[in-house]
Predict the structure of Rhomboid family intramembrane serine protease.
Amino acid sequence: MLQDINPIVLVIIIVNVLFSLKGFDDYSFLDKYKFQVSRVKGDEKIRMLTSGFLHVDWMHLILNMYVFYMFSGIVISILGSLNFLIIYFGSLLAGNFYALYYHKDEPYYSAVGASGAVSGIVYACILLYPGMSLYLFFIPIPIPAFIFGVGYLLYSIYGMKKQLGNIGHAAHLGGAIGGFVLTLLINPVLFKTNTLFVLMLSIPIVLLLLFGDKLKNL
């Protein structure tokens, strides 16, 4: 399996593993580079990037890297390495920007993980190949990609509102939106070839952008 992995994907996984391992053993390192609202709003903007290469534990790291590996191949094969990197890092930053916006009044809110970037890659993949089917944990039947895409957005919006679990739903959502927008900008032919799917995904995104401020007050 590893002999078929793209070198860029392999390097990203290795960097995530090395940074995360350092953070596992050295809390001061984790604390210095994690995403934290008050620090980012100060003069530590680098945390917007570095937090995307840190994870809280092995399960968090393995899950993110496994999903990243599973979806990255299709994106690179269709869009090329440069566009893949644009989507990966653009989604990482989009996820943290949205988390910063949504949690702007919570100075001690913090998070780590590649989930925003990975969400962007997942969305790029299902935009490029909406006919694919996905198998999720504990669900023995395949789920069409377009159903997963819409469901993921709705679940993330609900998760933000209810603050479900120790999960950065805002970063997941921002990353997914980033991957969605960047993929369409890079490959605008999708507006014609996958028109219905693009519209279906656009509706919850537009509603979120218009009414997201009201989520905390509902």
Remarks:
- The chain has a mean pLDDT of 84.
